[in-house]
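Here is the promised in-class demo. Please do not try to memorize the tokens; focus on the logic of going from shape to residues.
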């Protein structure tokens, strides 16, 4: 088992886990920091009557609604297939979406600092918030699917009938999505060094689980 874990740790699958961790821990924090620096967002968090934690929770809550709607309309979690990555139209489309969204965030951040940005601060806030929701949902979705496929073997559902197995699979995916959403909720407020340590620990933990179930 020790040799199996070491071989997994230095295999290409660990690179996938590391990329997953990078997006989950660093990209979300980068996006959230841009959002917080927008004039209108900053003023909301600095209001005397505002509880920052409750406001942050309220801003994160739509992610649950998006996940529920996406699952109800398109069964996105249960029927989504990221693999193979190169030929997946979902991955290609949303990779372009991520790049365009980050460029848009950088443009908004720059424009918001200018004098003209004061006139459009509410519009800039709304556009930025929609981009944040899109990126956060996509990153959490990616982490959920990667974890389900690589840390939970399909064999744990083999003893159940298909409808029961499908329902259990939905519960597992839903629990993972909520777990990662809560993780992002706290990670975006962490400092750099704890984020680095968490990234490494998360990658190693996934590699360890993979070595147990798939080797």
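The designed amino acids, position by position:
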């Amino acid at each position: 088992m020790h040799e199996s874990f070491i071989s997994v740790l230095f295999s290409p699958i660990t690179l996938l886990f590391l990329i997953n961790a990078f997006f989950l821990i660093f990209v979300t924090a980068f996006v959230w920091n841009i959002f917080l620096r927008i004039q209108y967002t900053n003023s909301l968090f600095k209001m005397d009557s505002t509880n920052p934690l409750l406001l942050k929770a309220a801003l994160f809550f739509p992610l649950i609604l998006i996940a529920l709607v996406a699952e109800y309309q398109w069964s996105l979690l249960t029927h989504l297939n990221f693999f193979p990555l190169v030929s997946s139209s979902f991955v290609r489309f949303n990779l372009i979406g991520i790049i365009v969204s980050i460029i848009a965030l950088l443009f908004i951040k720059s424009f918001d600092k200018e004098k003209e940005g004061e006139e459009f601060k509410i519009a800039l806030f709304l556009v930025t918030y929609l981009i944040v929701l899109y990126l956060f949902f996509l990153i959490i979705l990616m982490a959920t699917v990667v974890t389900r496929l690589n840390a939970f073997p399909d064999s744990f559902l083999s003893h159940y009938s298909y409808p029961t197995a499908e329902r259990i699979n939905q519960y597992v995916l839903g629990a993972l999505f909520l777990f990662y959403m809560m993780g992002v909720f706290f990670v975006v407020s962490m400092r750099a060094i704890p984020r680095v340590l968490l990234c490494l620990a998360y990658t190693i933990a996934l590699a360890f689980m993979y070595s147990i179930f798939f080797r």
